Amino acid sequence: MKRFFCAILCVMLFTYVFAQVNQNDVVMVSYEHSCKEKQATLLLKNNTEENISSICIKITYRDMSGNKLDSLWFDITISIEPGKTQGVDVGAFRYREGYYYYKSQGDTGNAYKIDYDLICYSTKESGWHGLTDTTGENTADVVCLSPLVIVLPYLLIFLLIIGIFIGVYWIVVKRRKNENEE
Hints:
Elements: H1 2-18, E1 26-32, E2 39-46, E3 52-62, E4 68-80, E5 85-91, E6 99-101, E7 110-123, E8 127-130, H2 147-181
Parallel strand pairs: 6-7
Antiparallel strand pairs: 1-2, 2-5, 3-4, 3-7, 7-8
Helix pairs in contact: 1-2
């Protein structure tokens, strides 16, 4: 029974790992956010052989000491041809509080750095790459899901299987106990 649970856990882990997208498919070339601006500009480069129509990214904001300030997810409809770079505006990080990207020139206030993570992207030719939709349809309005939402069904299935085994074990023990009493 231990081998069975280990096998199920390994299958779930491998499924999650292979659902990850190659971080080099769409890379961040530059990021710009000056103090008090409502929008930040992100330049993205398509390193695939296909036209990208939509991406989902996570930006982690860090102070100059490297401490995490916040993480935000962005679903972006964009058109990037293979090998090309495209700019996109995203919501600026805490612009009302005077935050600015540390590479922006001439700003004073609270500087921050960012970590860029590509979560998933969509192409017209082959659909979603990375954490995908569950319908199998290649639609532009599919929202990329957080890893927790993707792993949660596997966890629930795993718990259901454990519950079934515990239930069957309890029934067998109860029957043996009744047979021994007779």
